[in-house]
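#random but structural
TW: two for the price of one
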Amino acid sequence: MLHKITGVTVRDVRFPTSLEQHGSDAMHTDPDYSTAYVVIHTDRGLKGFGFTFTLGKGTQIVVCAVEAVAALVVGKSLQEIVSDFRGFYRLLTSDGQMRWLGPEKGVIQLAVAAVLNAVWDLWARAEGKPLWKLLVDMDPRQLVSCIDFRYITDALTEEEAVDIIAKAQEGKRQREDRMLKEGYPAYTTSCAWLGYPDELLRQLCADALKSGWTRFKVKVGADLEDDVRRCRLIREMIGPENTLMIDANQRWGVAEAISWVSRLAEFKPLWIEEPTSPDDILGHAAISKALAPLGIGVATGEQCHNRVMFKQFLQASALQFVQIDGCRVGSVNENLAVLLMAHKFRVPVCPHAGGIGLCELVQHLILFDYISVSGSLSNRMCEYVDHLHEHFTSPVVIRDAHYMPPKDPGFSCEMLESSVQRHQYPEGEVWKLNPDLL
C-alpha cells in the first residue's frame, strides 16, 4: 500500500467496428469502439490499468482531459488515496478550475472515471484480489467512506448506506458461493444491432439459443415498420417464453416514444431502453407512467451523468430498471452510491455493458451488488456483447449465459500491449490499413 504514483500515461486506442456495423443503433450508426487507455505507474513496479469508453471521434479530447486530471494524481501514494478515498474523489471532481468543464459530467467526468478505474485496479492488485472481492470483503464503514454523499443526502444518508450493507452481511457467504458456482445472469445484445441484415439476425439468434441464451435485446427507433418486422422476427425466433427488451438509444421525443413503443407492445418487451434524451428525467417519468398499463418498464442510465441525476430519476419514479455503466460516472466510487440508492428505492440494477471493456468492468460491480447490497436476482441481469474481449489479459468468462466471477487480481482493465499498439490511433497498424476511416 506504500506504492507511490510516479506517472500516468494515456493512449487513444480505437477499433474499426463500423466496418461490420457492430454496435450500430438508431442514433450511433457507425461507431468505432474506442478507449482512452490509462496506465498508472508506481515506484515499486506495480501498475494500475483503467479506461473510459468512446465511439471513435473525440477520444483525443478525453485523452487531453485525462492528462489534465493526471497532474492531481502523480506523487500520491496508494495508502494516501485509499485512506481518504472520498477526499481523493473530490480532489479530482472539484478542482477549482477544471470543475467548470463539468461539473461532474461530460468529458471531464469520463476522464476522471478512466483515472479512478486505474486507481481501483491498482488497489485490488496490491491486495491480490479481483475488485469485486475487494469490495465484498470491505468493512461497511470503510466501503461507504469511499462515496461522496454531497448532493444526495436527501435521498440516501451515509448512515443509511452503512445500514444497508451491514444488513446484507447475513447470507453474504452463501450468495458469494452461489456466484462462484452459477455466475450472474446475463442478456445478449449481440444478435440484433440495427445495421445487421435479417439473415445475420436469424443466424445469431439461432446460435445464441443453442448456447443457452434466454434474454435478448433488439435495437429500435429508426423506422417503425422496420422495427415491427424485426421485433416479430426476433420474437418468433426466441419464442414466447424467453425475454425480449428493446432499445431506442435516445431517438424519440416523449409523445413519440409512447406512441412508438405502444405499437411494439404486442411483442411483450420487458423494457424500452433510453426512449428519449438521457437528461429528460420528467420525460422518462411521463413515458414510464404511460407504458405501465402495457407492462413495459423504462430502463436508462448508461449516459446518465452522475449520482445526482440517478437520484432524481429514482425520486421521480422515472425508471424501472437502473443501468449503471463502468465509465460514464465517476468510477466505482460513484457507482457505489447509485447501487445503494437503487436498493433503497427498490429498483433493480441491470448494468449497461458491451463496447470495449465495459463487460469486463461492470461484472465486478454487479457481483458486489448481489452479494453485499441487494441480495436479489429478481428482474436482474447484466448486458453482454460478444465483441473485443480477446484484447484483454483477463477477459470475461461466460458460461450458460452467466458471468462467471473473475479470479485475477484487479479490475479486469488491462489490455494486451500488442492490441494497444496495433490499434493506437492514428499510427497503429489497423488504422494504416483503413485510411478511409481516419
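TW: number two ↓
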Amino acid sequence: MTRRTLLTQNGHSKTEEGIQAGCNPPGKVALKKKVTLLRGISIIIGTIIGAGIFISPKGILKNSGSVGMSLVVWVACGVLSLFGALSYAELGTSIKKSGGHYTYILEAFGPQVAFVQLWADIIAIRPAGVAVISLAFARYILEPIFMPCGVPELAIKLTTAIGITTVMYINSMSVSWTARLQIFLTFSKLLAIGIIIVPGLYQLFKGETKNFQNAFQVDTVQLTNLPLAFYSGMYAYAGWFYLNFVTEEVDNPERNVPLAICISMAIVTVCYTLTNVAYYAVMSAADLLASHAVAVTFAERLMGNFSMAVPIFVALSCFGSMNGCLFAISRMFYVASREGQLPEILSMIHVRRHTPIAAVMVLYPITILILFLGDIYSLLNFMSFLRWLFIGVAVVGLIYMRYTRPDMPRPFKVPIFIPAVFSFTSFFMVFLSLYSDPVNTGIGFAISLTGIPAYYILIVFNKRPKWLQRLSDSMNRSLQIILEVVPAEK
C-alpha cells in the first residue's frame, strides 16, 4: 500500500501548525510506557474473568460427566492456557512490538497471512465479541431494576450502546485512567469471586461434602464428550493473550510481560477451581445443571437478599472485560495501520492525550450496527473458532522462528514442548468445531477467506486514480484536524 503522511510532526503544514498552536502538546507525541506490572496483571485477569464463571460453568460439568472430572478439567485447562501464555511471553519479549496475534503472524509468515487474520478480526470477530460481552453487561446491570419482571430487549440494547460508548470514550481520553479503571474492576471481580469462595469453603469445612461423594464415578464419564468439556474450559480462560497487544506500552517488558502472565494465570486457575468447589459445596450437580445463573442460585441459598448484589458484580465483571478488550485490540489496529494494512489515520496519536483515538473508535460504528441490526450470536458462532486457529498459527510461528531465526534475542525462552502441546490443543479445538458444527464453521472459514482477495485488491494492486488519491488525502487531513491527531514520533 502506498502511504503518504499528510501532516508530519516536523513538517510545515499550516493545518498541523494550527493543531499544535491550539493544543500545545507537552513533550513527545507517542504512546507512553504506562502499563506497570500491576496494570498488566489487571489487563489479563480483567479480560479473562467475564460473566462465564458467575453464570454458567455447567458446560464443563455436562460434558465431563462428574463433579471430580469437571474440577480436573478446570485445572487442566488452566495449565494448557498457561502453556499458551508462556509461549506468548517468549514472543512478547523477543518481538517487542504491540499487536498480539497479528504481529507474531506477520513476523513469522508474512503480510498476507497476517492480513487474513486482521480482516477476520475487524469485520466480524471483534465487533461481535464486544457486542456480546456488552449485552451481558447491560442485561445484568438492569436486572435488579426490573426484578422480578424480565428486562425489555430495547432497554438492554440502549444500555449496551451506552456501555460501549462509555468504554470507548474512556479509552480515547486517557491511558492512565483506562488502566486505573481496569485495576478497580479487576479487584471488584476478585472480590465477587471471594464472596463466593469463602462461604462455600466454610460450608465444606462444616462437613457439607455430600455433593463430592462418588465425585469420580466412572460410569457417568463419557470419553466422547470430554473434548467438548475442554473446549468450554479453554474458552473460559481465553484472554491471557491481551497483554501482548500492548507490549510497546509495558514498562520493562522483558521482566513484566512473563511475570504478569504467570501471576495472572496462577490467580485465575486457583479462583476458577475454588469457585467451582464452592458451588458444589452448596449445590448438587443436578442443581448446577438446572440453574440459569449459578452464582445467583448460590447466593440465594446462602445469603438471602444479598443475592440481589450478584447481578451488579456480574455487570462490573463484564465492564472490565469490555474495557480491557478494547484497550488491547485498538493497539492491533494501530500496529496494522503502521504496517500499511489499514488506513494511516489509525496509527496517529492525539497530540495532548497520547491515545490512538482513531484506532479506539474504528470498531464503534460496526459494533453499534451489529448490535441493532445483526444476529450477533450467529456471527460469533461463525467466527469464534477462528480465534483459536490464529492463536495456534502464532504459536507455530514461535516454533518456526526457532529454526529460521535462531539468532533472535530471546530474553525469556520456554522449552519447545510447551508451544508444541499448546498449538496441538488449539488446532484440535478447530478440528472439534469442524466436527461438531460443520455448517457454521464452514461459513466462518468462507468469511475469513474473503480476506485473500481483499488483500490483493486493497494492498497489492492499490493503484488509485489521482482524483481518488486526492479525495483520500483530503479526508485524512480533515480527520486529523477533527480528531487532533498526528503521526507518532519515533
